[in-house]
User: Fold these one by one.
Assistant:
Number 1:
Amino acid sequence: MKSVKRTDWGRRTPPIGGTNFELYAWFFMRISGLFLVLLAAGHMFIMHVFNDTLNLDYEFVAARWDTPYWRTFDWLLLTLSILHGTNGLRIVMHDNIANKTFRQLALYGLYFTSTAFFILGTYVLVAFVREV
Amino acid sequence: MAYQDIVSTGSVYKGRTGMWLYLFHRITGVALFGYLLLHIISTALILAGPEIYEGAEAIYKNFYFRIGEVGLMAAVLAHAINGLRIIAVDLWSKGSDYQKALNISAMIVFIAIFVPTTYKMIDSYFELCLEKSSAGTTIVDCMIRPLPDWKTK
Ligand code: HEM
């Protein structure tokens, strides 16, 4: 692969030093995106096209979660979409909130919310026991 | 052609297809994350038992929410297909040589999947509504009534 030496960074500061975190985050968005095509688009087709949400009831969910496979599918979907979405929103906030204090507050709010929803979702998937 | 000369040109917003796809990807991504949080809450209600869970689900069982579901499907499909286009441009060695073709393919694939799924979702809504409602219910009833009157089964 031929490489190009970049000499003009426009108005941006050249990214010198630091860690490779942003590179891995960039790569993660693409790899998790590939998995989410199976998980998220698959979930949409199963719940909204092959079945109809008008038929969605307690029994339907309980029957799915009777098998550990669907619980695993749903947990992978939960985990990857929260990680992918949180990192996506982190980028959006860095791009769009210029004020440093507001940006930090928004980011902390985002990380707190994502952690709370990840814990809630995981708890539901692990703790659910059918009542009827 | 895989690399361009890098020159400073000021704004990156050139108002062409790529910019609109970027904006669209961002809007659908943020919207999907917001929906994801609501969806986790409504699904978590299942721990409260059948009555509460199905009581909450009943709120969604009308035509207005079916339109919303079609919109959700559009957002997922658009973000997923455009996401695959981004992955092709970034990770496939020839991707950046075919950007125009990839832009157009993404839009064609979107329409090719979105149109039949929409048809299925709308068609099956009316079929099930008529089947589950009491005799004499019409398609117009199914469309305008906030909560279809389900036959008690
Ligand atoms: C269905 C399969 C999906 C694929 C293939 C996919 C792909 C991608 C890719 C490649 C990016 C990076 C864009 C960039 O760096 O310019 C991205 C960004 C993003 N995605 Fe997804 N994604 C998918 C599902 C989701 C879901 C389910 C959510 C919501 C939880 C989501 C939320 C986001 C957000 C918020 C961004 C940031 C937008 C931006 O930076 O402009 N994505 N997606």
Note: Residues A 29-30, 33, 36-37, 40-41, 81, 84-85, 88-89, 91-92; B 25-26, 29-30, 32-33, 36, 76, 79-80, 83-84, 86-87 surround protoporphyrin IX containing FE (CB under 6 Å).
Number 2:
Amino acid sequence: MEKFSISVNGKKQEVTADPDMPLLWVLRDLLSMKGTKFGCGQALCGACTVHLDDEAIRSCSTPISTIGSKKVTTIEGLDKEGHHPLQDAWVEHIVPQCGYCQTGQIMNAAALLKKNISPTVAEIEEAMAGNLCRCGTYNRIKEAIITASEALYLKHQSI
Amino acid sequence: MMPNFPFLKNKKAEDKSEVFVPSRRDFLKLSSLATGGFLLGVNFQCAGPKGETITFAPNVFVSITSDNEVIIVAHRSEMGTGIRTTLPQIVADELGADWSKVKIVQAIGDEEKYGNQNTDGSFSVRMFYEPMRKTGATARHMLIAAAAKKWEVSPAECHTENSQVLHSSGKKIDFGDLVAEVKDMPLPDPESITLKEFSSYKLIGKDVAIYDARDIAAGKAVFGADVNLPGMQVAVVRRSPVIGAKVISFNDTKALAVPGVNRVVKIEGAGIPPGLDKPLEGVAVIADNTWAAMKGREALEIEWDLGPNQTYNSAKQLEEMLQSTAKDGKVRRERGNFLAAQRAAGKVLERTYLAPFYAHATIEPPAAIAHYQGDGICEIWAPTQHPQWARQAVATALDLDLDKVKMNITLLGGGFGRKSKPDFVVEAAILSKAAKSPVRVQWTREDDLHFDFFHSHSAQRIKATIDKDGNFTGWNHHTVFPAIGATGSTTELHPSDGELGLGCTDFPYDVPNIKIETHESTAHTRIGWLRSVSNIHHAFAIGCMMDEIAEARGIDPVKHALQMLGEDRNLEFKPETDGKYENYGEPIETFPWNTGRMKKVIERVAKEANWDQKLAEGKAVGFAAHKSFLTYVACIVVVEKDGSGKISIPEVFYAVDCGIGVNTDRIRSQFEGGAQFATSLATTSAITFENGIPQQKNFDGYQIIRMPQSPKKIHVHIIESMEKPTGVGEPPVPPFIPALCNAMYKLTGERIYQLPFKA
Ligand code: FES
Ligand code: FES
């Protein structure tokens, strides 16, 4: 067991953990942040997606010892009020079915839009290919990402 | 115990739904339950600055507080169909509640109080549309009566809207301000309750957003593993690698040496047959957190007696099953004389169809939390489709009275039939008792794929005869698959009547000679039911075969289906099945099999898809129609090959007749998702066994489609209908697969006889 100090959603968190413990379990079990989900544990489904600095990563396959000073952002910290343009678009398009995969989808999409504010459909499909949805909400996810990208683009223009 | 198929609405369910049919006695019974129950005391009473909040609760499903809050109880499990929104939406519409302010709370598992809660078999709306309307209407009548009395006007001059009673003069009053008057009012005579005109509904028949959308997007929605209790430990279990394996001995020294691991506990399994509601034999590692438990499990040393299933090979069994279909089987439906038709035929088509085992692979793996308290009370939090079965199974396993088990239902991260089985809930309860603390049992993806209740693999052989004049004269369908019943009883060797009624013995086409036969097979794993159950493989075989027959007869497949359905009429299957057709647990007089309704969805889908158009080079279309769970569906799939030979599904067209459509957005979303689900079944997913062990360990081995392979535009056309509503969770799946296969044939010239095929 070792002591780690990591930054999660802008807050310093001290945890004592096995250095191999994946960030996912640090978040869920040690910090009680349940928005990040467990789906496969092998970087195959995307349910556990969070941001490490600006990159979307699979927290199930990222040991706590590799985080260092990089900033972790989870769904709880994506927007303080829960009104990131993607979250609003998700509600507008009524994307979720069971909802379980959706926080991972949103975090992955948010990282995409940070890099590419107006992705093409092909770019969206490629970027989202790592996030499984068993309920089959893929088309609404795509529509919601496009809606959010337009909202972000307009905001960007007006600045 | 083998329940009669929980995915069929069973007799017990029917009895219970009677509770809500308004006989005065029953309503009073409900009312007294409500006032003594959890609705009032615990959840909703809060003392505000204005003084004590009081509540009006005419029955267990709806209550209104003096703060004008309308609270509706959702008693069915939410696994993605939207039922947690759809049923309350019905109550709210009849009541005239302000939907934007309605609060929905999830019922605990309590059959006495809420009636049937088994969320399965696409029957929630079918079973509860009427009772929910009456629930809302009763409350509305009482509120109007109270307002009318206050204003000294006739109730007939009043109506409700936005959680207010309004008088024709323009006077209005909040529901909340009537609570004091209405609270102790006797319940009205159910006969006096009138339901609203359909045309006046503001929510029923409309797109209504799901209640939980915002919470889900914010990461605040609570699923099975998200409940946190003080002092909770986490367990993972090493289960019998082969069904029926028993622990000879185990050494937990290394496991206990892992930091954070607190305890190792053996779980007694059911052996063979494994049962539908029992845990598997295993050894659990209980730790401070999930990671420590997983590490501890890796360090366990267990010696197993693997038992008879250790030599099981599914490919070999499938081959044997296929061979068996060439012989005479047990006749399950007969009309006319198929052999005579065969002798007289000008042409006999004979085809075989194979489909694999499928896993449910909900993205949320099973997880459940139990808190066994010293005083013999066990409280559970679980993502279960069947709260009552889970509650009963826990009570049995811990030898507790049913009322000592409190079953809280979380959201389900997908269900598809997997989470109706309570094995994982029972594990949590056993382990909490052993650990003397709250315990979350956490399944990994590997556990989920290894120990699922699989959709059975299947072999089918169909012979169709065409006489010298080109008439389709005979249909002989052989089907064999290890039955669900075999999970509970080793003597179940044939598919049950229930499983056959799912797309096989209900073959609807007007063929003069029909013979349907089954063959024996044994189960070497746990068999369960997956979204649409045996309709999956039956529709695949029948839908593909019908396409070939149409081709052999030189008739367009859409025209052929319409022609073979014959006159508009209600079909009967009981006379030809020795009375054994089950019609999804509903009397066929109430929910008939009507060929006219089927023809309508076929005509509609053909029109919407522009079926007769000549498609651009590289594109092809396929068609199939299939009724399941009392809902009529026709489907057209478009496939396309690009320059590099890559195949995609640019468009899918569905037409559906599910009677009255309650939440049209959720109907569409079920079809959108159903097409995606079926694409996985058709093209990517399969479980195979070697030495009794599934060979697919995670999503790399058991693949489900990803966004790039997913069907792109999915058009869902809902037939406007005033027929009784029927479910939509499962019906999208069956016809999609043959429609896709038939489209692939047109594109490539090759017929598909085995799933999954490589697209
Ligand atoms: S849980 Fe991390 S990718 Fe699936
Ligand atoms: S919404 Fe259920 S897995 Fe995506």
Note: Chain B touches chain A through 65 residues (CB under 8 Å).
